[in-house]
Amino acid sequence: MHAPSMLLAAAAFLGSAVVAAPAELAATAPAAGKLRIMPLGDSITEITCWRALVWDMIAEAGYADKVEYVGSQKSNPQNCKPQTANWDQHHEGHSGWLAIDIANNYITKWMANTPADIVMFMLGTNDVTGRHKTADIMAAYTKIVTVARAANPKIKIIVDKVLPLPVMPQGVIDINKAIPAWATGLNSTDSPIVIADCNTDFPTSDLRDGIHPNLSGDKVMASRIGPLLLNFIKESL
């Protein structure tokens, strides 16, 4: 298994510290009757504030009491403070972890412990810095979808195009080029896959350290992910 440290090395190159992967928290049972949403990813899911901004969108649409974020983590290292005071902080973001490792070693357990009706994920940055092949990264994406559907055949999936990575741009370009055909090939009526384009027109000035979004970047991500999530919520309730 690959050590979840490649993003740490990239951040060191850029002169920025990255929070290490935390120990897993005990899984908590979902609230009865609520729609379960799993934010899945690496540090771009764990240590940034876009999840809080999307939760504000959920609350503004009137769904805050009908849905919940799920996952083994509740970390909030940036002390994100959305307008909604009681936002759900659960997630499955793990700093420094690879899509390949998550697919091969963790996703089955996570889906069993914290079942989801919707999963939204951005993965691949650490795989790129670890110089893994695009084909292997996309195979990991496929395994994540396969496992998620085995746990819930009607799960809805949002896959994000990966944020720009100035230090190693081509790997991200290759993943993002592969995502549309990959999503089309796996899309189904029962378990639809939609793409949140978090890359196009995302300025590198919205990266606080060359990897992670700053507040402006968080707002861009929320604006790309939130509407797709709200559509899925409306369809599911």
In brief, what are we looking at here?
It contains eight helices and six strands, in the order H-E-H-H-E-E-H-E-H-H-E-H-E-H. With 237 residues, the chain is an alpha/beta fold.
What's the number of extended β-strand segments?
6
User: What is the number of independent domains?
Assistant: 1
- The top-level CATH class is Alpha Beta
Largest sheet properties:
6 strands, parallel
CATH superfamily: SGNH hydrolase
Radius of gyration: 16 Å
The topology string of helices and strands comes to HEHHEEHEHHEHEH
Q: What's the shape?
A: globular
CATH topology: Rossmann fold
User: Segments where pLDDT lies below 50 for 5+ residues?
Assistant: 1-30
Strand content: 5-15%
Distance between the termini: 39 Å
Organism: Sporothrix schenckii 1099-18
Protein name: SGNH hydrolase-type esterase domain-containing protein
Domain SGNH hydrolase-type esterase: 40-218
Pfam family, one: Lipase_GDSL_2
How is the secondary structure organized here?
Layout: H1 6-13, E1 35-41, H2 43-46, H3 50-60, E2 67-69, E3 92-93, H4 99-113, E4 118-122, H5 125-129, H6 134-151, E5 156-160, H7 169-186, E6 193-196, H8 215-236
Parallel strand pairs: 1-2, 1-3, 1-4, 4-5, 5-6
Helix pairs in contact: 3-8, 4-6, 6-7
Describe this structure in words.
It is a single chain. This protein has 237 residues and is of the alpha/beta class. The protein has a single domain, classed as Rossmann fold. It has eight helices and six strands, in the order αβααββαβααβαβα. The protein has helices at residues 6-13, 43-46, 50-60, 99-113, 125-129, 134-151, 169-186, 215-236, and strands at 35-41, 67-69, 92-93, 118-122, 156-160, 193-196. Strands 1, 2, 3, 4, 5 and 6 form a six-stranded parallel β-sheet that branches. The longest helix is centred in the last third of the chain and has 22 residues, at 215-236.
